[in-house]
Predict the structure.
Amino acid sequence: MDQFTPLDEEFYPDILRGLSVYFDSPFVLNIARTAQKFQRPDLAHALNRKQIACKKWLVDKLVETNGGTFEKVWILGGWYGVLSALMHADQRMTCTTLTSFDIDDDCVQVAECLNREQFSTGNFAAKTGDMLELDYMGECPDLIVNTSCEHLHDFDEWFSKIPEGTLLALQSNDYFGEPDHVSCAENLEMFQAQAKLSQVDYAGELPLKKYTRFMLIGRR
Ligand SMILES: C[S@@+](CC[C@H](N)C(=O)[O-])C[C@H]1O[C@@H](n2cnc3c(N)ncnc32)[C@H](O)[C@@H]1O
């Protein structure tokens, strides 16, 4: 039987760099760089096929319903900045400034690495902040994305802070089994009852293996 030596730490980054050349993709190259620099198990979680499927679904429906050009975008609970990177990589989208907020300070450097070019040109920023404490009235963006609705211990409080008429893209799920999921919805109707939009551009669900993800796009 052949003897295999253990994989060294260049193994997966090398493959990703090869794919980035084949697809001519700065997005894949940034994933290779970030995966090599920040070897954390939850980075793989943030980039797994379910997470990417949910975020690609958001970008597709956002572009379909509202086009892809935005001046100022805030992504709340943005984690490692995967959605920001997907938005930057998508030819249909132009976001002049995009800021990803997360309450966890460990997310900043990873998100900056994953959004390397836009960070260096000032089009992207990753900030530490509690979405319940942000000033939405003073400098409200033209699009607010929150794909972490299930993590909010007081969804109503957060929702009440958003100025009426603001464009929102929201995701939640029915994955009650996760301890951090303190605000799940049992179904799409329940999510719509939580997030009472004045105008609904899209409401849908994406069934995944262990849970269903819900999405609403529309005006507060
Ligand atoms: C597991 S992640 C992402 C979940 C979601 N399914 C997604 O893919 O976008 C949830 C993130 O929300 C962040 N978070 C939770 N409560 C928050 C708050 N009040 N303000 C900002 N970020 C928050 C957490 O730190 C975490 O990085």
